[in-house]
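INFO  loader      accepted 1 record
INFO  loader      residues=197
INFO  predictor   begin
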Amino acid sequence: MARNMQPILKRCRTLGITPSVMGIDKSSNRNPNPMKRKQSEYGRQLTEKQKLKFIYGMLEKQFHKYYEIAIKMPGIAGENLLQILESRLDNVVFRLGLANTRRESRQMVNHGHILVNGKRLDIPSYRVKVGDVITLKEKIASTDRMKDVIEANSSRAIPKWLDMDKNTLTGKVIALAQRDDIDYEVEEHLIVELYSK
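INFO  predictor   done
INFO  writer      dumping C-alpha cells
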C-alpha cells in the first residue's frame, strides 16, 4: 500500500492548511504568509483537490472514485464529496477524539481496534451510516496510551453530527455531515470544475 511520507507541517504550509486540521498542535517557525505568485484557475483547482487528498490521506484513484459517486448522488456534487469523505470510518474515529490524527485513526482501524455495531472492522474507507455505533475493543480501551489520547483530545469539539459518550468511549452517528460542519476552508466547487473538464 502506498503511503504519503511528506513532512506534514511543510505540506500544510504549501496547501494553506493549519496543522490543527490534521490533529497536530505544532506550528512552523517560518513566515506564515510568504509572498505567493498569482495562481492560474487550474492551479487553484489543483490545490483544492490536493488539500482534500492530503487532509483525508488518500491517493488519486480512491479520491476520483469518491468524486464519481458524489456526482451520481442527488444534490450538489461538491457537498456530496465532502459528506462522503467525512463519513469514512478513519475520519469518524478521529472526529470522535479516539485518535490524535487521521493517520493514527487509520492505523487503529487497520489493526482491528475499532468495532462498528459490535463487529470488528478493519477497513478505514468504510462509510458509516446514520445509527452506526463506534466503540473501541475492551483490550485497547483500558490501555494507558488510550487514556492519554482521550485526555489529550477531551477539549476537541465533537461535530454535531456525531454523539460521544466519554465514559464508555462509545460514539454514535446521529446524522451525516453537512457543508457547515466542515471546520477548514475548502472550495469544493473548484474540484468539481477540475474533474468535469
